[in-house]
Amino acid sequence: MSALPAEEQDRIARWILGELQDEERWTEAFSDSQDALGALADEARTDIGAGRATQLDPDKL
Questions:
Q1: Residue range 1-31, pLDDT digits in tens
Q2: Proportion of the chain in helix, strand, coil states, percent, rounded to 5
């Protein structure tokens, strides 16, 4: 990269920083949603145990 013009180096650096920020936002979003996902999983297990859930048939979608 050092052989590239300064403007191109800056553009690439901004792109990399943007990617890192996006990754951080995804990580935060997933970590913040773990309680909600756990509650949904518990609800699904309860529904399955009570017979209120059926197997998904992809051919019927």
A1: 889 999 999 999 999 999 999 999 999 888 8
A2: 75, 0, 25
DSSP designation for 4: S
| pTM of the complete model | 0.52
In angstroms, the CA 58 to CA 21 distance is: 37
∠ CA 18-3-1, nearest 5°, is: 30
Residue 3, token pair as written in the block? 């052989």
What's CA 31's distance to the chain center, in Å?
10
- DSSP-derived letter for residue 59 is G
What value, to the nearest 5°, has the Cα angle with vertex 56 and ends 53 and 37? Answer: 65
